[in-house]
Amino acid sequence: MFNFLPMPATIVDIRQLTDKERLFTIRLDNDRGIRHRPCQFILISLLGIGEAPISISSPPVDSGRTFELCIRAVGNLTNAMHRLSVNDRIGIRGPFGNGFPVERIEGKDILIVAGGLGLAPLRSLIKYVLQERGRYGRVILLIGTKRPGDILFKEEVLKWEEDPAIETHITVDVAEPSWQRHVGVITGLFKHVGIDPFKTIAAIVGPPVMYRFVIKELLAKGIFEGNIYLDLERRMRCGIGKCGHCQINGIYLCQNGPVLSYLEARKLQEAL
Amino acid sequence: MKPKIGVFSFTSCEGCQLQILNLEDELPILLGQIEFVNFREAMSEKGEDYEIAFIEGSITRESEIEELKKIREKARILIAFGACAHLGGVNNLKNFHPQGSWLPSVYGRTDLFSDTIPTKRVKDVVPVEFVIPGCPIDKKEFLRFIQGLLLNIQPRLPDFPVCVECRSKGNICLVEEGKWCLGSVTRAGCDAICPTYREACAGCRGFVEEANIESLCNILMQNGLSKEEIRDKFRLFNGLEPIDL
Amino acid sequence: MDVTIQSNDVDRFIRGLLLYYDVIAPVARDGRFVFERIDDPSMASLKYDTTLLPPIKWIYPNNEILLEFDLKDITKTEVVAQSRKQVLTFVHPCDINAINLMDEVLAEEPSDVNYLTRRQSTLIIGYECLGPCRENILCFDKGYHIAYRGFDLFFTDIGGRYYVHVATDAGRAMVEGDGIFKKAAYDDWKDLMRARAERKKGFNKKAVEGDIGMLSHFLKEAYNADEIWEAEGRKCLSCGACIIVCPTCYCFDAVDEVCPDMEKGVRYRRWDGCQLRGFCKVAGGENFRKSAAERVRHRVFKKEVYLKKRFGRSGCVGCGRCIDSCIAKISIIDIFNRVMERARRNV
Q1: Average pLDDT, integer, range C177-194
Q2: Phi then psi dihedrals of residue B102, to 5 deg
Q3: What is d(CA B94, CA B109) in angstroms, rounded to the nearest whole number?
Q4: Which residue from A84, B106, B227, C259 lies 20 to 30 Å from C334 (Cα-Cα)?
Q5: CB distance C325–B212 less than 8 Å?
Q6: C92 — pLDDT class (breaks 50, 70, 90)
């Protein structure tokens, strides 16, 4: 039987990523790792305020007993998180959801498309794939944000740009004079990357409007619908497929998602 | 540092202030966390060093406009509490009659209050950070609001209508019985107290977002109300809200 | 084992139950009925029509506390899942069937500890419907006017006395001992058969025209039938009455409440539902089910397509509460009929 008890945890590190986002490093008091898969999420509990779903940004085996959460201050709970400091206590439930099928895609090229905050969950996948680099073919990363200042994990992204293990392309909607890279919507990056459609697995996370355009582009390149994976956002409330908030047609995203292949998602009228 | 609070009253029955004082069990505990520096109904001191101002009542005189603006300048956070401050309250009814024509029927004489102006909501005069709705306010909601302030979170009002609370209590629906009730378009949070006592919801907490006024209007007309009667029902509290009947 | 009880002994039976259990029974209120906790047998009405709220709400109550916590120390958080022993009495088959479905839904892993705890402390006494109890019902269409399981005792009025089917050991314990119940004899059984033959006469009018077994399929075909959903959406007030009174609605929101001392607090769950505007709104502001038309469609699909696909039977038990409680007169019977008609037209 399942109850709603959050596991006590401690904030062990906080890093400011942009104006609105901070990266929190969390350790569970029971000293057990969170044991998650890339693109799973947890529910943060702040007693007296409530719970909010947050994707895990760190790879499963990175740091042993800690994990990382990239949090944008938008609501009551996330704003309250931003006011916390190192050594403050929070509650954690989870991990929830299916996560990314990292075993199923071994040997394939991986095309990762991250729009805005979408890089937060995808970072767990990117870092995982880079750790297990030998098991995968090419790794291509496309990042799109509003402004250069909004790029999450900037230092890491700059490192990835230099890293031959991963082909990184970045675009911004609104450039500044010093900006040397691409300007425009994320689909504009596709003409810079040649892919083998029969070998490529795509992983897309971004704002709701982004999916349709990116998927269209990928299908046009000949990628099979079942090889396009989406990590969808909904109002995850209970995490156990009961409360109904995350339901998309017949499925509960907190249980059967948040990662769906486009083959599955296109049968769900409410998904995209 | 305890947050310093001022409670101010404009045109109203002052019943919402009374609701704060009705928190008899909680107030002594609460006073360990907050400090009232100006609260006419409860104390004689008149401190000016408040950072949070609770405004009760609607604005119906020029002098009140100036007074309210002065409070706004001093307060970091300004809260309109109660239907008068939030919506204009029943005071807004006079706006639908020629200026002064209501004096004889209300006061029996015409030589009083010659300086009144059409009723304004607090938000029509100064920016408002938060609203605690209701006629009167729900004292528990005030309490939750103070707690939110202490926890540094934005207190959230229910975004669903009164029907949710009313049905959850197993009440019999007044509209189902052929009567009128505005619960289906009115923001919940009152625990459906009026319909629970078989009294129609008059909408004192204001409309929910995207209220389907048109559908409710059709339903009430089927229950035998005329468009004018329905408009009057809406006007009691929501006369200053844009309603398209 | 089956037994009988004289009608005028039922009060004695309830009085006996009151010694050991919270007794929840249909009680008259302003011309309608509600399931309430009674402290005297005279409060209960055996003859009643569909209650305002379904009895399952005693197993899945509103504002049920899930956690108790200390704001200063998260390790002091405690799970609250407890229940008093209760008997839901004289429950109609539609409501029993609803509880049966919720037993499956909420026991599906990861299961809901609060529901299961209350369910395990709950006994159910069924009461057979020998005819339709209200106008806007479709229990008969769906075969939900009969309950085959999900009760400890089941009462059928056979004229001056009740035929009581004893379905479980807990049920047996309730009827044994004090001599109120007699072992059912052949004549009792014959009267039961006679009553059930009458039931067939009573339930003779289907609410939905056509093969209800095909409804789920036809609904899927009507997913984009805007002439149905847009029309209902324009009427819908999004007031949530239908999802509150439904015996198979279980969606909830979790809310924290803090004591005035700012030290202790509780997390409780409040009934919530897909018909309310903010149900699918995320913190960033996006609303994933914006229009009332989409929300009405989701409710109908959840009952008739999604639950059916997952649990093998319809989530609408046909009690008619959503129809009676909708002041905008949105009727699930009406919607079903239009979906069926559309299917006939499109053949």
Answers
A1: 92
A2: -90, -10
A3: 16
A4: B227
A5: no
A6: very high
A71 contacts A54 by C-beta, under 8 angstroms: yes
Beta partners for residue C267, in sequence order: C67, C256
According to the 3-state scheme, what is the secondary structure of A115-148?
EHHHHHHHHHHHHHHHHCHHHCCCEEEEEEECCH
d(CA C206, CA C340) in angstroms, rounded, equals 13
Is C74 close to A90, i.e. CB distance below 8 A? yes
Number of domains in chain C: 2
Q: Give the Cα-Cα-Cα angle C126, C22, C100 (nearest 5 degrees).
A: 35
pLDDT per residue as tens digits for the range C275-321: 999 999 998 888 999 999 999 999 999 999 999 999 999 999 999 99
- Residue C297: DSSP 8-state: H
**pLDDT under 70 in chain B at which residues?**
113-114
Residues C147 and C31 both lie in one domain: yes
Which ipTM score applies to this complex? 0.94
Judge whether A62 and A123 are in contact, CB under 8 Å: no
End-of-domain residue from the set B151, B175, B207: B151
Average pLDDT for chain C:
95
CB contacts of C78 in chain A (<8 Å) are 5
Contact flag B153-A83 (C-beta cutoff 8 Å): no
Contacts of C324 in chain B (CB under 8 A): 176
Same domain, C7 and C148: yes
CA distance C336 to C300: 9
The distance between the two most distant Cα atoms of chain A, rounded to a whole number of Å, is 57
Note whether B126 and B84 are same-domain residues: yes
